[in-house]
Amino acid sequence: EVQLVESGGGLVQPGGSLRLSCAASGFTFSSSHMHWVRQAPGKGLVWVSRIKSDVITTTYADSVKGRFTIFRDNAKNTLYLQMNSLRADDTAVYYCARDASFSLDYWGRGTLVTVSS
Amino acid sequence: QSALTQPPSASGSPGQSVTISCTGTSSDVGGYNHVSWYQQHPGRAPKLMIYEVTERPSGVPDRFSGSKSGNTASLTVSGLQAEDEADYYCCSYAGSNTVFVFGSGTKVTVL
Fold first, then answer.
1. What angle do CA A52, A54, A58 make, to 5 degrees?
2. Separation of alpha carbons B86 and B37, rounded Å
């Protein structure tokens, strides 16, 4: 059974940093592209970032470019999102999701990030 | 990249059909046959319902169907059931620099 479990969310002050993790199991993680998608409270889904299975190729939404870094450890079957210079509008539930060739077929339950002083 | 445009709400009685539109541009919906749809119940993770415009993942009822014409994709839910009441989001591939763009979301109410 495919499982994605996010962790690392919490309350952080504006300008602060946070690292999210997504532990994957039940599939060949090293062969899968992976994504982060976020959802602000009461709002819609917004794509954040993708990392390909090659570990090197990464893409970001303009809103997080230069502040967030996606990376992965295929030996640990874990996806990460390093978030720096956090702003109030980064407050959201962050989901990791598996890429299924132009769609996202499995999602985690999400982890809540709150940016507030 | 702006969000794809969806109507904020749609509704129907049990057994009826409801269709949700998703309008983008030639850079996303109109440019690729890579439109997917997601169902999200309150407090839950999104669930893939349709991929590649018309394809259903295993386990998704055939009451759910997708289509596309030009820059607009559509999701139809036939034979509405109470458990179909949820938020629905379209999503389109938008090229290697943007990857994905989601729709604004539609709340479906079963009357």
1. 40
2. 12
Residue B111 to residue A19: CA distance in whole angstroms:
43
Which residues touch A78 (CB under 8 Å, ≥6 apart)? A21, A22, A23, A24, A72
**What distance in Å separates the CA atoms of residue A74 and residue A65, rounded to the nearest whole number?**
23
From B48, B89, B97, residue closest to A44, measured CB to CB: B89
Nearest by CB to A102, which of B34, B38, B45? B34
| Structure tokens that stand for A8 in this block | 């690392």
Q: What is the pLDDT of residues A6-46, one digit of tens each?
A: 999 999 999 999 999 999 999 999 999 999 999 999 999 99
8 A C-beta contact, residue B38 and residue B22: no
Residue A15 backbone class (left: φ over 0; alpha: ψ -120 to 50; beta: rest) = left
- CB of B22 within 8 Å of a chain A CB? The answer is no
Dist. CA A35–CA B1, nearest whole Å: 17
Q: With beta carbons less than 8 A apart as the criterion, state whether A16 and A104 touch.
A: no
Distance CA A97, CA A111 (A): 12
- Report pLDDT digits (tens) over A48-93: 999 999 999 999 999 999 999 999 999 999 999 999 999 999 999 9
Query: Cα–Cα distance between A40 and A17 in angstroms, integer?
Result: 18
